[in-house]
Write a structure and sequence with these properties.
Two copies of one chain form a homodimer.
Chain A (H helix, E strand, L loop, with lengths): L1 E6 L7 H16 L4 E6 L5 H12 L5 H8 L1 H16 L4 E4 L1 H4 L1 E3 L8 E4 L2 H7 L3 E5 L2 E3 L5 E3 L4 H12 L4 E6 L4 E2 L11 E2 L1 E3 H9 L7 H10 L3 E5 L7 E4 L13 E17 L4 H11 L7 E3 L6 E9 L3 H10 L1 H4 L3 E14 L9 H11 L6 E5 L2 E7 L3 H11 L11
Parallel strand pairs in A: 1-2, 1-9, 2-6, 3-6, 9-13, 12-14
Antiparallel strand pairs in A: 4-5, 7-8, 10-11, 13-14, 15-17, 15-18, 16-17, 18-20, 19-20
Helix pairs in contact in A: 1-4, 7-9, 8-9, 13-14
């Protein structure tokens, strides 16, 4: 099979680990007969070291040159792994973005891949393992770009899409995607199979297994991703297509959450077009990230706007809005800086009424107050007080019987 | 003027030095109005660190991947310098071998430059300083190559040739080329102007200022090189064309030397074609470097062959030749492992008789025995006992009045 395998910085963190990964790849090639493109990240901490080096020259370094320096981290790992593979008689070569032709736009530091040339790559693959430097591309003006932190996942998925690989295998330090955080719910189950849509909601909710953009990319180009542990054996979690709402589809697949959020509520604003936009523009100008946004139906031409910001932007946001209060003509600006968001996610939700009711009832039974609610087609998210978060996760994990959810397919 | 400026690893050895070099370049661009290509080496010790990293994976690492790893050293320096320049509002960009199109052959680790594309480079130069990663190119099979240690000098000269720069300025930790080592002769004079031919003889004699290949390249393409100190002011030494044997050309320009040589003499070998070649082939197979070779005129079909090898190859060479003695049918193999070579160099020598006589007489007056002599058009070299080397250098420096040699042009 034609496979893309991506190894992260921790899996390649020292020379012994590089040797181990090399043995694993050799087995996949020589015993299992696969053709393999390997995508590598920089060795653990290397990117941070290079970042610090740049900032020691200039606190706001030229972004193009910053990218060029960061990119050397992956070049070193790629060549070290190639050396390790050749040492054990597994023919391999490294290839960087220039050599392959991984073209991106000019958004240095967070570039987007525009196209990947495959002729040369497929030719090389006939006779050897090709080890590609993840996280980088070449801009329209022929400079190295980086794709943003975690961009190696995106590189791997994009390469898999370009060469139409059977699977994009992401090797990491967890053995798959779980129904929720096993540190909180000991019964949390590894999910064997999850849809792109569900995984997207998981990623953006702070499940740190995969970079959100890589899942978006996989969704768009239909690339199956398998997340597995870099060292342990196991089939991991396959992220794949929705195969219809059969009985085997659990209503709720997983529970995700994020801490350290703050809620802001702007009371009694004039419900006319442009007011919400005006408020959000003020925040955008200061680069304050806004996550959830809820606006209730207006009463007598007035409405309330609630949104969340990161906890450490709370004070700045309140101050900013207070100075604008007269201009915005609002009655009051209030908030809570110790908030958590908890979400239930499930592709099966589309065809099931009552999921939200089950969620709200489970929380209400333990007197956990819901401060705001948003929903998407396959997700329901609520804001609660941060101190109730772990209790709420356990309640919902039990309410949706996730401790048994994978029994039939594992 | 269109200039190429090369800075070595010591000049760029820490962040403060990088900032200083940036200021120097900014002045050259904004006050003096030059267009500048900067060629950089890796920061001091970086190449050694990367070398060690490769060998920690495999003692005989894949040479292509080894080159790719070593090349990251220059990429980091180039981008750091670009960041430092942009910080002080001097527009600059780094450019590597892929971006420019510096094409080499496939001799990884010691590649030779075949061609350099200049369209893009000249376009960039119109608006900014271009900082090129020295020491590297791209092979015919699209892999990074390195040019061998010290190859950044060659990169600089090749770029100067390609864009027809006015001068190739090599900034280093000495302020120019001297008539001989100032540590030995306190009167040693900085040479303001020296010909390519003289510099070539100096380089290969162990004057560590410039890599020999870079001087060969400069000679071939007529690129004027100026060697100066990276920090101190001064015009340095200009390496340029022979402008004829006018009166101002000193007969002897400089005295160079090398220590730690060993002399081997093979006595009474049959003087027929192929014998010398046979002996040298034996040594070549074992990668023993042979420098000077002298064969005297034969007597009754027999001759002696004398040559030098590095001191630390002496024992191996003697052993090797002893085992071949019957086959070679030689009378004796003898040698001396504490030998030095001393050379007088001067373009003026071509039209002056008596230079060698002056040399030999000066040495004879102090009873320094000459063990072998070779000459080229612009050089006379002799082998002497190592312990007399410093005395001999002082004697010759005085005999050829080099302490006054630069007075008229400095």
């Amino acid at each position: 099979m034609l496979l893309v395998q991506k190894f992260g910085g921790t899996s390649l963190g020292n020379l012994e680990r590089i040797d181990n990964i090399a043995k694993k790849i050799k087995k996949n090639v020589q015993e299992d007969g696969h053709q393999i493109i390997v995508v590598v990240s920089a060795m653990a901490n290397k990117t941070d070291q290079l970042h610090d080096l740049c900032l020691s020259i200039d606190q706001t370094p030229n972004i193009m040159e910053y990218d060029a320096i960061l990119a050397t981290g992956e070049q070193i790992t790629a060549s070290l792994l190639a050396i390790a593979l050749n040492k054990i008689n597994c023919h391999a070569r490294s290839a960087n973005a220039f050599q392959i032709g991984i073209e991106t736009n000019n958004a240095y530091g967070k570039a987007r891949i525009r196209s990947i040339k495959t002729n040369q790559l497929l030719e090389w693959l006939k006779t050897q393992v090709v080890i590609v430097t993840g996280f980088q591309g070449v801009s329209l003006e022929n400079k190295i770009t980086t794709l943003g932190r975690g961009g190696s996942d995106t590189s791997a998925v994009a390469l898999a899409a370009a060469i139409q690989a059977h699977e994009c295998q992401i090797y990491t330090d967890v053995d798959g995607v779980y129904t929720t955080d096993p540190n909180i719910v000991t019964d949390a189950q590894k999910i064997t199979r999850i849809t792109f849509e569900e995984m997207l909601e998981m990623s953006s909710q702070g499940s740190k297994v995969l970079q959100t953009r890589s899942v978006e990319f996989a969704t768009k180009y239909g690339v199956q991703i398998r997340v597995s542990h870099a060292v342990h054996r196991g089939i991991g979690t396959l992220i794949t297509f929705d195969e219809g709402s059969g009985l085997e589809n659990p209503v709720v697949s997983a529970i995700s959450f994020s801490r350290h959020e703050a809620r802001i509520t702007v009371r009694k604003i004039h419900d006319k077009p442009g007011i919400a936009a005006k408020i959000l523009q003020i925040l955008a100008k200061k680069a304050i990230e806004v996550d959830m946004i809820v606006q209730s139906v207006s009463q007598q031409d007035f409405t309330d706007l609630t949104f969340t910001v990161p906890e450490n932007s709370y004070n700045q946001t309140i101050t900013l809005l207070n100075t604008m209060q007269t201009q915005l003509k609002t009655a009051a600006i209030e908030g809570d800086h110790k908030i958590a968001k908890i979400s239930i996610i499930g592709i099966g939700m589309r065809s099931h009424a009552g999921v939200a009711a089950t969620m709200f009832e489970a929380l209400a039974l333990k007197n956990i107050n819901i401060q705001a609610i948003t929903t998407s087609e396959i997700k329901v998210s609520v804001l609660i007080e941060d101190k109730y978060l772990e209790l709420a996760i356990r309640l919902l994990h039990a309410a949706f019987k996730l401790e048994n959810s994978q029994n039939n397919i594992q």
